[in-house]
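BACKBONE GEOMETRY TOKENS:
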Amino acid sequence: MPIDVAAATSAEPRSAELVWDHRDVILYHLGLGANALNYALEGPGLQVLPSFATVAGGSVAAGEARGGLSLPGIEIDLAAVLHGAQRIEVHRPVPARGRAVQTSRVADVYDKGKAAVIVLRREVADEQGPLWTSDAQIFVRGEGGFGGDRGPSARTAPPERDPDHTVLRATREDQALLYRLSGDWNPLHADPEFAKHAGFDRPILHGLCSYGITLKAVVDTLLGDDAGRVRACSTRFAGVFFPGETLRIRMWSGQGRVLASATAVERDDAPVLADTVVEYS
């Protein structure tokens, strides 16, 4: 079987050095369509969206794999892999320039019946201490049914009322081609033939790109355009989104947190992101 749960969860953590500077930050922001000067001009006014943590260090942070997802106890074809959910907790604001050590491990493997979910945990720290913790849930089609724990199934449903704010965010047809330069080279987001092999009509946008766009929309709308106020952001990738489509982002304000959802306008508001929570100070 491609997944050996015991081997995966008991393996020694892997460590890697992450290095980034303002050029990486700006490229990431441009990949989200964030071209305002406070996101795209080097200098003391450059702020960093916390979602940059998913790409800091380029392909090292993204877990680059050519041909498959290869981890201790795991050998998976990339065509079977989808990003299921993501959470980032920032312990202090992400600097525009940094050198840090990332420690990564498989925290859990869940059995969802027809699929497996691999929880990859990455903890990043520099000389001053912890910077952020990232949990990615990787959905692997066709690898469930091994009798393991199904894992948590809690959902964060929005209130049963109209959203407090709704914004639209258009994307470019080449959005995925620009975003992938930050380190996620999965051909699912660029190669039409590979996308068809994976069951899609055409390449899809990275879920983490939609995640970053949505987080920035919350920062712009409710946090006074101050990305430093974000403490954590979690989401579930509820459906595909194609480059060139428009995201409809709905937000419900709460005490110290915002609930959000994102849908694809051109496809009758098909779900894209669900169970999205932004925690802030």
Notes: The first strand starts at residue 14 and ends at 20. The first helix runs from residue 5 to 10. The mean pLDDT is 91.
